[in-house]
Design brief:
about 170 residues; globular
Length: about 170
């Protein structure tokens, strides 16, 4: 895994916040329980909502993250709104060249769940964990096993992120 802090410019973060804020009730949302493979939902009760970003915003994000990512010909970018008790089971993103997540919440309480855990291939069986931090990007470029712990039943807000997948 690669972890990059302050990956997006403050200007772009503001545009993302504006598009998300204005469009949250207008976006076409899907549910993790409708589109994710069943093994990704193993032990998960809650739902993660998913919506595509505008093409313009997707391209602006791609332009800013490209220096930090492996080569890629085609990407897919989406918002993810993690509702209470949502999460994702252990997986490795093997159907993609690489995948990345950018965290959007201004502050995320440590007790609210939603931590990113991964099996560090450099250390063998050691698992690492990191809480969501605004404007941090995690890139899975080695198809390492990872998961997101369930969001607490009563978090102060939903957990928001942007997900990027590379198809080559």
């Amino acid at each position: 895994m690669k972890i990059i802090y302050d990956v997006l410019s403050l200007r772009l973060l503001k545009k993302i916040d504006e598009e998300f804020g204005k469009g949250i009730s207008k976006h076409n949302w899907s549910s993790s329980h409708l589109v994710w493979e069943p093994e990704l939902l193993d032990g998960i009760v809650g739902t993660c909502l998913i919506s595509n970003l505008s093409e313009n915003l997707s391209q602006l994000i791609w332009k800013e993250i490209k220096p930090h990512t492996p080569p890629c010909r085609k990407i897919s970018v989406s918002y993810q709104c993690w509702l209470p008790t949502s999460g994702i089971a252990i997986h490795n993103d093997s159907s993609y060249e690489w995948a990345a997540t950018i965290y959007l919440n201004e502050k995320w309480p440590l007790n609210s769940g939603g931590w990113f855990l991964w099996n560090d291939t450099l250390t063998g069986d050691e698992w690492r964990a990191i809480p969501p931090i605004r404007n941090m990007m995690v890139i899975n470029d080695k198809q390492e096993k990872h998961w997101v712990t369930s969001i607490a039943a009563t978090p102060p807000d939903m957990r928001y992120s942007i997900q990027i997948w590379c198809f080559d």
